[in-house]
Recover the amino acids of this structure.
């Protein structure tokens, strides 16, 4: 990450996070395992994801300020999340990050940080 203290700063703050989210969700919507889990109006989901990822990657507590503690596992319990869906989600994020001009080392660090939560949300065999 060179001279940056957080991943959030290294990606360019909230604008950098927004670019990643905007590249990510079209892939999610088109994915046969993931698309059906998401609403047709994806904008509110994208807004929440931007707030969450900003906070998750070391930026300001944007998500918590609006919605309280993230409690992400609890928030994902209503959705059937299988190991295949967790991997598909990470695959979509990998593809979205590949479209950025971020250094490979930073992209891999972000995926590594996201893989823990992605697998933690699994609630179906």
């Amino acid at each position: 990450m060179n001279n940056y203290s957080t991943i959030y700063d290294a990606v360019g703050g909230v604008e950098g996070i927004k670019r990643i989210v905007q590249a990510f969700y079209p892939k999610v919507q088109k994915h046969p395992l993931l698309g059906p889990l998401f609403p047709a109006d994806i904008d509110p989901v994208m807004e929440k994801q931007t707030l969450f990822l900003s906070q998750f990657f070391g930026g300001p507590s944007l998500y918590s300020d609006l919605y309280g503690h993230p409690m992400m596992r609890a928030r994902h319990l209503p959705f059937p999340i299988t190991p295949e869906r967790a991997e598909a989600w990470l695959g979509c994020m990998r593809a979205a990050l590949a479209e950025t001009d971020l250094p490979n080392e930073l992209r891999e660090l972000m995926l590594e940080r996201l893989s823990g939560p992605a697998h933690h949300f699994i609630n179906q065999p």
Notes: The helical segments are 7-10, 13-30, 43-56, 62-67, 72-76, 83-98, 104-120.
